[in-house]
Amino acid sequence: MNLGALNPEQHQAVMTIEGSLLIIAGAGSGKTGVITHRIAYMLEQGITQNHILALTFTNKAADEMTHRIKKMTGKKLSNLTIATFHAFGVKVLREQAKLLGYRDGFSIYDSSDKREVIKDSARELGMVLEHEDLVDIEHLFGQIKTGIITLADQTTGMQNLFQEYQEFLYLKNAFDFDDLVARPLALFQSHPEILAHYQQRYRYIMVDEFQDTSLQQYQWIALLANQYRNLCVVGDDDQSIYSWRGANYTNIQAFEQDFPERVEIKLERNYRSTGIILEAANALIAHNTNRKEKALWTESTDAEASLQVRYLENDQQESEFICDTIRTLRVSESRSYNNFGVLSRNNSLMDTIEEAFIRHDIPYRRSGGRSFFERKEIRDTIAYLRLADNIDDDIAFVRIVNTPRRGVGKQTLATLREHSDNRKESLYCTAKRLLDWEKPPFSAPAVAGLRDFTVTLDQFRERFTLHKDMARTAGDMIEAFDYWGGLLREYPNNDKVAKWKYDNIFKFLSWFERWEKNPDNLEPKLSLYLMRIALAGRERADLDDTAMVNLMTIHAAKGLEFDVTFIAGVEDGVIPSSKSLQENETNIEEERRLFYVALTRAKEKLFMTVCHQRRQMREIQLCQPSPFLHELPSNLIETEDKELEPEDIERLGMSVFTMFKD
Ligand code: ATP
Ligand code: MG
């Protein structure tokens, strides 16, 4: 391993492996790099992989760290734990499932599954809920679980609903997303012997992106580190962008209090961005009042560097501009598609841009928010797999028992539900039990459909337990259920769409196969794959590694870097988001931090686009440039050469005129 490239502060941070360490430093100063070097150094010092735990924010970041350490050390890293908080939670829950009364191979419920469970719980209590109620209750339950509000403060009705909801999750052998942190924490708090076990195991703990760690997550690692007190946290308060979901940089203060013996190291040199980009980012963030003052400098003065703002008529032109620029730069500066990133504040803005990429045949990967995994055919496939893995997963059952159609209608489901509620037995087991009756209480087509469904599923459940050729088994299962026939019936006049959807399924299964056949994968089990995609679904972790342009929200881009970065929709109301400001005016600082995160992703070139009109939903809206643009020193910004016509100036507003003047 070569430590020579590190600067003196980074070097000190890497060598300080005993005790607690706090590194609060600006973007691109090598914080993540310090963690990877530190782990490599620990391994070199003979610390066993088992004793090391590194936590980070996205699966992509975790994979990248693992990859780097592997390259540095040339070691197989099968016993090293580098994970997101949620993935680490899954690991603990799997090990402790029995204690909680859960079986191995539990399901993980996302937002839409959660709403189904809330609906079921309400039905059980005789409550009627509207869709908006569901959304609000889901949010409320999340806040209860993450410890932001307490259950005791809720009305009795709500408390009952919450208890029922928990009971339902338990019956379905499922955890929801919030449980993945809340349950392990509760377990550590209530079982000292379990805590001691994990404290002995994880003696060296590191946390990246510490500013976005939630209170609960902090409590969890602080407990874990309390025995050996080797806890290293790195972060940047200027990049705190999750305060709305309980992540809060008061954790930095909590850490300072809980670990008074800590060493603090400052990293002030930015290695990522060229001078102009860094200068612009520094000027922007200086407008925030609530921050730790930091110096951040760079030596990079690249001739290719530039910072540009482009004013465009509408979002169509915006996406054309982005595609054109990428194509041109790729050829003229021989850059690979990988080196481009396109960011936006809102995921919805990305739809138009994505369409342009498709039109122009530019390979891209979109992450954050709605994704490949949310397509109906993929959700269906996952539901088949989930049910094969966990027969108590009623949500998956309901989703696919009649997909493709096999005569199992509402009435049949209602009957099934009634019988399953009485016995507190899953729908699947209930169906099998009732089918054994001499006269099953269903219509003739429903009996045939259910019988076919359960027999086929049982067959495949059997095959999955062999833990061999699972992706192939999954493909066979999709065929056995005649998903293709279902698609053709659904799109009778458009078999192109059917074909595309069917291909998506097999693309998904090819990722599954790649995961399954990866020699580093020591435990290729269906339940583990399902957990992995449940965790990665929202960010679509790198399942595909061919060169593609990266399209993502700013939130999803945290910690990443791109040679050429585009920020689309730099408009008032988009960033800062009017929705966020309506909730609370003080959110302006968080919005500025978001913009700061976006700016600091760029290494050499940064393009910001501003539209005059934008289509949102079905309406055309007139837009103004983001006020944040005025906070960037105008001498740094290039705009297009074209002379502005007087009406352009009027249209764009005086504020912009001042920017063009320079
Ligand atoms: P962020 O705040 O965005 O998460 P960070 O502080 O984690 O950023 P890194 O991602 O670790 O920063 O590093 C930023 C870039 O700087 C990377 O490309 C990294 O390789 C490079 N870098 C870091 N330290 C050095 C160094 N000593 N010499 C050369 N390059 C370095
Ligand atoms: Mg980082």
> Which ions and ligands are bound to the chains?
adenosine-5'-triphosphate, magnesium ion
Overall radius of gyration: 26 Å
Quickly count the helices.
28
Low-confidence blocks of residues: 652-662
Helical proportion, percent range: 40-55%
Report the mean per-residue pLDDT as an integer. 89
Please report the total strand number as a whole number: 15
Largest sheet: 7 strands, mixed
Structural class: alpha/beta
* CA-based shape: globular
Distance between the termini: 48 Å
What oligomeric state do these chains adopt?
A: single chain
Please state roughly what percent of the residues sit in beta strands, choosing from under 5%, 5-15%, 15-25%, 25-35%, 35-45% or over 45%.
Answer: 5-15%
Domain UvrD-like helicase ATP-binding: 4-274
Protein name: DNA 3'-5' helicase
InterPro entries: DExx_box_DNA_helicase_dom_sf, DNA_helicase_UvrD-like_C, DNA_helicase_UvrD/REP, P-loop_NTPase, UvrD-like_ATP-bd
Binding site for ATP: 25-32
